[in-house]
């Protein structure tokens, strides 16, 4: 069990947890998940749906921030939560722990992330052997989240940070200033690792509004996805700056 474990601020868990228990067996599709019950907000072509990604780890030393869960993560999260309940889980926060582990970063994305984090010295800063431990025996040190906590779809497709940009959508901007700012304040000593330029933009919005301390942010970290062909070159260009940002955080919060 994680120390400091709780629900994220503004969690919809108590209202919507019943949906998880009622899900049918087998592979879940859009008909089961992209429903009116799960729909939280809409604006033009944008639709925001609930997902059981609401675990908060206040004791985290690093928060890894994606843009928004996509359809694959959404399906994985709902399936993991349903299966945990049917396996007899009675601790609802334990279900959220299980969901986070099953639907979090995996595969090449995790491997690439670990390699870059170890290269800039994060493992040493956290007192662990390798950053890979964050996804296993030392998950007490990590908080995983998204700039837009709940899945956002544009005309039914995954939202990727443009058309519209976050700051051009009143609904998405409101989400950043309410949900994300509040959540990051709860993990007050954590280093913040934004994955991709759209997420960096969201954090800079909060910095400009004086809702976030810039010394917590590790800017310039390449998105670790295997599909990012510029990852290695960008990391080489930014490695020294990333080391300096990590040292700055360590001095203030370490």
Secondary structure layout:
Blueprint: E1 5-7, H1 13-21, H2 30-33, E2 39-43, E3 46-49, E4 55-57, E5 62-66, H3 71-86, H4 92-103, H5 107-120, H6 122-126, E6 142-146, E7 152-154, E8 157-158, H7 170-186, E9 191-194, H8 197-208, H9 231-253
Parallel strand pairs: 5-6, 5-9
Antiparallel strand pairs: 1-4, 2-3, 3-7, 7-8
Percent in strands: 5-15%
Reported CATH architecture: 3-Layer(aba) Sandwich
Question: What is the CATH topology assignment?
Answer: Uracil-DNA Glycosylase, subunit E
Widest β-sheet, arrangement of strands: 2-3-7-8
The end-to-end distance, rounded to whole angstroms, is 23 Å
The chain-level structural class is alpha/beta
Mind summarizing the main beta sheet? Answer: 4 strands, antiparallel
Report the uncertain regions.
Answer: none
| Mean pLDDT over the residues | 93
Number of strands: 9
Q: Which series of helices and strands comes N to C?
A: EHHEEEEHHHHEEEHEHH
Tally the helices: what do you get?
Answer: 9
At the first level of CATH, the class is Alpha Beta
Number of domains: 1
Task: Report helical residue fraction.
Answer: 40-55%
> Rg from C-alpha positions?
18 Å
Principal-axes shape call: globular
């Amino acid at each position: 069990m994680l120390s400091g474990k709780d629900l994220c601020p503004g969690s919809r868990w108590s209202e919507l947890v019943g949906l998880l228990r009622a899900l049918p067996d087998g592979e879940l599709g859009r008909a089961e998940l992209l429903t009116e019950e799960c729909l939280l907000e809409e604006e033009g072509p944008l639709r925001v749906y609930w997902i059981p990604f609401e675990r908060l780890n206040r004791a985290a030393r690093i928060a890894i921030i994606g843009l928004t869960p996509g359809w694959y993560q959404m399906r994985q999260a709902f399936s993991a939560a349903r299966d945990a309940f049917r396996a007899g889980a009675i601790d609802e926060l334990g279900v959220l722990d299980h969901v986070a582990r099953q639907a979090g970063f995996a595969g090449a994305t995790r491997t690439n992330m670990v390699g870059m984090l170890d290269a800039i010295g994060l493992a040493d800063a956290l007192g662990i052997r390798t950053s890979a431990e964050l996804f296993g025996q030392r998950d007490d040190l990590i908080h995983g989240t998204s700039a837009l906590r709940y899945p956002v779809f544009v005309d039914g497709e995954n939202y990727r940070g443009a058309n519209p940009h976050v700051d051009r959508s009143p609904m998405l901007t409101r989400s950043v200033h309410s949900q994300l700012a509040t959540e990051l304040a709860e993990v007050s000593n954590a280093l913040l690792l934004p994955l991709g330029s759209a997420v960096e933009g969201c954090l800079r919005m909060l910095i400009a509004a004086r809702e976030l301390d810039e010394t917590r942010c590790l800017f310039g970290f390449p998105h670790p996805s295997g599909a990012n062909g510029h990852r290695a070159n960008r990391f080489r260009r930014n490695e020294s700056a990333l080391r300096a940002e990590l040292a700055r955080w360590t001095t203030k919060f370490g």
